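Progress against Task 2.4 (sequence-to-structure conversion) is shown through the following example record, which the project officer requested during the mid-term review.
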Amino acid sequence: MSFTALHHQSQPLLIANVWDAASALAAGQAGYHALGTSSAAIASTSGYEDGESMSFDELFFVVARIKAVTKLPLSVDLEAGYGDTTERIIENIHRLRQLGVVGINIEDSHVVNQARSLDDASIFAAKLLEITQACPDLFFNVRTDTFLLNLDNALEETLYRGQLYAKMGADGFFVPCVTQPADIAAIAREVPLPLNVMCMPALADFRTLASLGVKRISMGNFIYSALQARLLTLFNEVQAHHSFQGVFNDENH
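Structure tokens generated for the chain above:
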């Protein structure tokens, strides 16, 4: 089944968000059907803040290592594109396509001085059209940060942007931080693109999300963060108990 077809099933595509070759292998062993990179997790593993603090070449190296160990469909979180110009963004995407990447996440916001702000919808849409026309063989999952940034009119703005992006070649619509069932149902109904939601504490279970019209469920960097918290616990236990017994008693070892 093609990556696009995975977004048009009766049940949502649960995508495993990975950050290196080891996590990609684990996702494959767990039976996932597709992988997506987590930009925040990849940045963190190299000591960077999220928001394109690392270079595209560093990101490319990580993606290349992931592709070297798995044949699962891989979508790459390209954030805002890692380029000051549309031409550079297209060049980056072509490089990823040559690795065998099948999809891209691209977002309508930028991080400047660790502060995220929403792009003008019309300007972003024009850039999106140019990019999708230049890269017609990839699945473009377009992310809007209306709910992430907690806009007062988040639902209204999300619907406007989703409908606009659909006309500009988007293949999927990613709305991180949306959790209310009524909002999710409205977006799935009003935007003619497969809806992607992300792991959040208040997010409904997968069966409910399917009934609301969700077509893709992703993890963000939450699995990675949970593992880092467990790693810190293990390091603390070894130091506190002057023993490695806690490492070998771990039920997940």
